[in-house]
Structures are given as structure tokens and as C-alpha cells.
Write a structure and sequence with these properties.
mainly alpha
């Protein structure tokens, strides 16, 4: 997604669009969110004890949370591809509000990612 967004951003620069800083801000948020996810230090191991017992209800809750987060990431990917199609058609008037929406989508994903740690960290400690 980031590489595709770089292509979109470069085309916006070439077309000399007014809100070119919005494109850069999306890249900055995308990098920040990507780093958080790539450097995550927690997973599902805290839901399994040494004897092999699994806390199934808690595990299901986390899986559902992660699935919803994954769905949001897929929606983001689709939105970026839609914008890329508009860029190829040089339909800049329709792109501007969609760029802001991409940023909002990324910020929502970041908020949910941060919430994931807060919500599930206590499960790993117990």
C-alpha cells in the first residue's frame, strides 16, 4: 500500500495539485502505523499456559478483534487502489476528499491497534 501511495503522491506532485501536503501526511501516518504493527511485541502466547490449556473465550475475542482490524486494512487497500484508478484517469477533483479519508482510515486503524494492546495486555499477564 505504501508503494502504491508513493506512486499516487508523485503523480499529484507532477499534476501540481493544491493539497500536496495531504499526500505527504498520509505517508507519515502510514509509516508510523506500519512501524507499530511491525514492532508489536505481543501476540496470542499469553492465552496458553505451560500445560497446554488454551483460554478459548479470550482467544476468540482477540481473533475477532484482529479480524475486524484486518478487514479495515483491506478496506484501506481497496480505497487506495480506487484512488490510484482516479489518478490514472487524472480525475483530481474527486481525489482530494478521498485523500483525507485515507488519512482518517489510517488514524482509525492506529487507534484500534493501540487499543488492542491496552485491551489484551492484561490477559497475557494473568
Amino acid at each position: 500500500m505504501r508503494h502504491r501511495w508513493e506512486e499516487i503522491s508523485l503523480e499529484a506532485l507532477k499534476a501540481k495539485v493544491r493539497n500536496k501536503d495531504d499526500y505527504k501526511k498520509v505517508i507519515q501516518v502510514m509509516d508510523r502505523v506500519g512501524e507499530k504493527i511491525n514492532r508489536a511485541d505481543y501476540g496470542y502466547a499469553g492465552l496458553m499456559d505451560r500445560k497446554g490449556h488454551i483460554r478459548e473465550n479470550e482467544l476468540a475475542k482477540i481473533f475477532n478483534y484482529d479480524k475486524a482490524l484486518g478487514d479495515q486494512v483491506q478496506d484501506l487497500d481497496k480505497s487506495i487502489e480506487d484512488i490510484y484508478g482516479l489518478v490514472e484517469a487524472e480525475n483530481w477533483s474527486e481525489i482530494s476528499p478521498k485523500v483525507r479519508n485515507i488519512k482518517l482510515m489510517l488514524l482509525d486503524i492506529e487507534e484500534k491497534w493501540d487499543g488492542r494492546e491496552k485491551e489484551f495486555r492484561p490477559l497475557e499477564v494473568s
